[in-house]
Amino acid sequence: MTERVDVAIVGGGMVGGTLAAALAEAGLSVALVDRADPAEQLEQAYDGRTVAIAHATHRLLQATGLWTRLVPHAEPILDIRVTDGPSLLFLHYDHRELGEDPLGYIVENRAIRRSLFARLGGLETLRFRAPAALARHIAMPAGVTLTLADGNEIDAALLVAADGSDSALRRAAGIASAQWDYGQTAIVCTMAHEKPHRGIAHERFLPAGPFAVLPMTDDPVHGHRSSIVWTEKKALAPAMLALPEADFSFELHRRFGPWLGEVRVAGGRWSYPLRFAHAETYVKPRFALVGDAAHTMHPIAGQGLNIGLRDVAALAEVLVDAKRLGLDIGSAAVLERYQRWRRFDNQVLLGVTDTLNRLFSNDLAPLRLVRDLGMAAVNRLGPLKHFFMRHAMGTVGDLPRLLRGEAL
């Protein structure tokens, strides 16, 4: 059987799925292909991560109909506190300095997937094929033909790769990627604690890397909860992950102090290698990269999913506008507009996060002095601090309609 659609997306994760929902909501026909079983992705053991949803990303999720189901699972970020080890100097973002809106939200990945899969099932012009494997694809001047492992075919004007940082489609397209390994591992878990977090996200810089405590919604079983993103040297991470629960909880407590009272691990532990990657181009005729397939960044600023969804907002707007004008949505001219919109912005943020990680993930006294004085200066200079706050909220720059909360 051959199905004909406007856009075929390979990779049904949070970026690829959101792009599919945005395009289908705007009337384009979409085929979304993912090799993972949606039911397995909703199991507790599949993924223990949370994501920071910036204020502008929150608008996008509202505009695409995904936010309603997330409201009970989204914890507002009211304050962000950044400290450098034992230093008394700090950086503090208070949401009240810019108005009443939260700086963002912390949401479990599993809750986002649940909302996403429910939304995908209710869109008439969308076909979600999962689990389904892509056997091969052929790009031609007039379109792309995808052949699935079950023999079914999809003809599309455009193929979008949303298949992650190790993108097979990016490699098949001959697109090189600048990349390196940070020699760090992110240890991720949920922590139950005695005292309420009061909506405070705390990032503490330690010699091995940043240690983040991110506020989560309360749980009927575990009570007050926070998500831990603990950056550790790659060589030491396996030993930390293997610690008995009491010892692991002690290590958590030792790194961020007593401000949340007694703590314990609530659930499993996960680890993820950290690396940098940036594709040399995001587009070719009939082909585009989004999200981690185009760029992979250090989690030091909590912006990974946000920049992926900014790709979604820009690409969706470019494609919908072109379709309405009767243009070929897979043409180089149309796709180049998307690349111009996103590549420089992503390159700047990738460079900033890479520099911050290198600056803060060490214990050199001269660098400690420079970064501590820098944080203190930003904290005292209101206009500069407010600019950085708006940047963290994703409200700076040439925003696509979805990031402004507007329909396509």
Topology overview:
Blueprint: E1 2-10, H1 14-25, E2 30-33, H2 38-41, E3 50-54, H3 55-63, E4 75-77, E5 79-84, E6 90-94, E7 104-108, H4 109-120, E8 126-129, E9 134-140, E10 143-148, E11 153-161, H5 168-172, E12 177-193, E13 200-206, E14 209-215, E15 225-233, H6 237-241, H7 245-256, E16 263-279, E17 283-284, E18 287-289, E19 295-296, H8 304-324, H9 332-360, H10 365-380, H11 382-392
Parallel strand pairs: 1-2, 1-11, 2-8, 5-13, 11-18
Antiparallel strand pairs: 3-7, 4-7, 5-6, 9-10, 10-11, 12-15, 12-16, 13-14, 14-15, 16-19, 17-18
Helix pairs in contact: 1-4, 1-8, 8-9
What would you note in describing this structure?
The structure is a single chain. This protein is of the alpha+beta class. It has a domain at 2-75 and 101-179 and 276-361 and 398-404: FAD/NAD(P)-binding domain (3-Layer(bba) Sandwich), CATH 3.50.50. It has eleven helices and 19 strands. The protein has helices at 14-25, 38-41, 55-63, 109-120, 168-172, 237-241, 245-256, 304-324, 332-360, 365-380, 382-392; strands at 2-10, 30-33, 50-54, 75-77, 79-84, 90-94, 104-108, 126-129, 134-140, 143-148, 153-161, 177-193, 200-206, 209-215, 225-233, 263-279, 283-284, 287-289, 295-296. The strands form three sheets. Strands 1, 2, 8, 9, 10, 11, 17 and 18 form an eight-stranded mixed β-sheet that branches. The protein has an eight-stranded mixed β-sheet with strand order 6-5-13-14-15-12-16-19. Strand 10 and strand 11 (153-161) form a beta hairpin. Helix 1 runs parallel beside helix 4, helix 1 (14-25) packs parallel to helix 8 (304-324) and helix 8 (304-324) runs antiparallel to helix 9 (332-360). The longest helix is centred in the last third of the chain and has 29 residues, at 332-360.
